[in-house]
Amino acid sequence: MNCKFTLFPSFVHAVRMLASLVIVLFSTGTSAADRPNFLVIIADDMGFSDAGCYGGEIATPHLDELAAGGLRFTQFYNTARCWPTRAALMTGYYPQQVRRDGMPEASAISGPRGKRPDWALTIAERLQPAGYRTYHSGKWHIDGKPTEHGFDRSNSTVRGPGFFETIKKKDRDPNYYMTVGTAQHAIDCLQEHASKFSDRPFFHYLAFNAPHFPLHALPEDIQRYEDRYLEGWDALRKERAARQRDLDLNVGTLSPLETEVGPPYAFPEQIKILGPGEVSRPLPWHQLTKLQKRFQATKMAIHAAMIDRMDREIGRVLDQLQKMNAMENTFICFVSDNGASAEIMVRGDGHDPDATPGSAETYLCLGPGFSSAANTPFRRHKTWVHEGGISTPFIVHWPKGIKARNETRSTLGHVIDIAPTVMDLAGVKAGQKNAPPMSGRSLKSAFHKDGVTLHEELWFYHEGNRALRQGDWKIIRSNVKRPFPWGTSTEAATESINAENWSLYHLTNDRAEQNDLAKLHPERVKTMAAQWAQLVERFNQDANHGAR
Fold this sequence. Notes:
single chain; alpha/beta; Alkaline Phosphatase, subunit A; 14 helices; 16 strands
């Protein structure tokens, strides 16, 4: 008689965690008391220049204070889109490696939002066995549930189409606002940690939905910016670029406004719903009607209000860390998932043109005009792999571990570097058995010295848009006919770049990506394009390695 028994998955997971903890305790020289806490903060659709410390006029005193007490990176990149960036941040791999974004010619084994392979663990799954208490507050946008992937506590915000309670709900809480609720959950987690788990370090992933569309903000926040943007996006871009020069950010000259480039997806019928104030191209401000100027300026005021409120809520979270005496040894970083968005659409409960802009009954998007200003000084927007779509503010603050104060770093970095950095500082080995080598690199050396080379190249691909950066050189190839992210196709805005050819830019001299050098350096283009394609093959192999 053959006897069989089955180990329940939860038991196997517990045994694996216990074994990992034993390995960590005996293989690292870092005691629990010395290991830092981590607070990783991510914004949604925030432009490179929106924060004050990156040249913006929006009130962000708490982000500015973190920057003054630490570092600002000026050449840090994301993946140009929300869900791929979150997968990259959480795992340390390019999203295509872990099946969380599409590949050229649909050659990967799953679509753009597939399930990660077994080996593609989150930061939390790596830190939890090492004794860390793990928390998540806010947006998730990765496959599975946070509590199934290493988080002890989570309040993943899946609340419908807006920042207020869904307006169709009979029991809607009129006082609820998502940004405040997300921060309050983070504070509750930290208070619980202080009272019950103070002997353990923590990792907290704080993922705000702001300032993603729909543009919803509290009335008192909008009021602070009500008339601020009536001079338009042309003036605002120049103003921010001048402030960036005063801050010595060294991010290059201001790119010309691309008046022919509109939203990445065409929704002409939805634009009609928004009324005569909507504009689908970033035309010179003086060409707009008085009605259009007021409508566009109001949208930007709401965008600013959302960021202002997010910063205020970050301040409340930082106050809680101060109360816990945890600021000194908490590694804090702030990043955006992509550039500001040129999208214009109406989803969810629709848009009431007679309702107060920014209220729950409205559905407004920033659009290409003020998105261009938010991404100052760069070109293009979210979904494109030009600098405006992939450049992110990246602020690092860790008083105990970083001596530098109010310094900038020009070191090339990417959101894939956040996971290996956290593991490095926590004393957890980044690599793991039966997994491809992690694409991300620890940023630790860059915290102490500028100009450190972490990557031979950085690779980009999203919806047919592709790029490769090697040192100061970058090649780009844009897609004219882009796949719509939910399965159909649509025409994008007219591209100024021939989709059949690569463009080449030298970013030290031309981060605005205006002077195409491809014809002057054809061999360099050929070599870099071949390297881009070679990485496609490698990432496909990784995506085919194992299944979750």
